[in-house]
């Protein structure tokens, strides 16, 4: 038998598009997904000077709405020095060319290490 939840409380337990918030909370504490590990490995190989790489599968959060794999990439590397942001993003896109074919979306944040 399902527990009774007042209407006001029920709306707090649901996020955008009616997705349960609990699913997102569980994901925050889970280890990396297979896709995250694969993308991270490719970026490490293509950006050996990277001082920080963070790949997050945001498919399970509210952003993609269940339309397929969507990732957010944060990468800090000396390889981006003296390059415009668009050039930095093109470098990441080129490194992930094959993986991007199977993605719904990709958010890229690049930076240069501060010394």
UniProtKB/TrEMBL annotation:
Keyword Protein biosynthesis attributed: no
Range of residues in the leader sequence: 1-18
Source domain of life: Eukaryota
Lineage, highest ranks first: Eukaryota, Metazoa, Chordata, Craniata, Vertebrata
Keywords: Mitochondrion, Signal
A Pfam family reported for this protein in Swiss-Prot or TrEMBL: BolA
Gene: BOLA3
Name the record gives this protein: BolA-like protein 3
Record-stated family: Belongs to the BolA/IbaG family.
Gene Ontology CC: one annotated term: mitochondrial matrix
Subcellular localization(s) per the UniProt record: Mitochondrion
Keyword Mitochondrion: yes
Native source species: Pteropus vampyrus
Role description: Acts as a mitochondrial iron-sulfur (Fe-S) cluster assembly factor that facilitates (Fe-S) cluster insertion into a subset of mitochondrial proteins. Probably acts together with NFU1.
Transmembrane segments: none
Oligomer status and interactors: Interacts with NFU1.
């Amino acid at each position: 038998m399902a527990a009774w939840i007042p209407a006001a409380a029920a709306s707090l337990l649901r996020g955008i598009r009616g997705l349960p918030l609990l699913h997102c909370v569980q994901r925050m504490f889970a280890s990396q997904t297979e896709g995250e590990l694969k993308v991270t490995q490719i970026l490490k190989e293509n950006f050996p000077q990277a001082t920080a790489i963070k790949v997050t599968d945001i498919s399970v959060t509210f952003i993609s709405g269940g339309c397929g794999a969507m990732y957010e990439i944060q990468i800090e590397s000396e390889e981006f020095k003296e390059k415009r942001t668009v050039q930095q993003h093109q470098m990441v896109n080129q490194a992930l060319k094959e993986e991007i074919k199977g993605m719904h979306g990709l958010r890229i944040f690049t930076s240069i290490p501060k010394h």
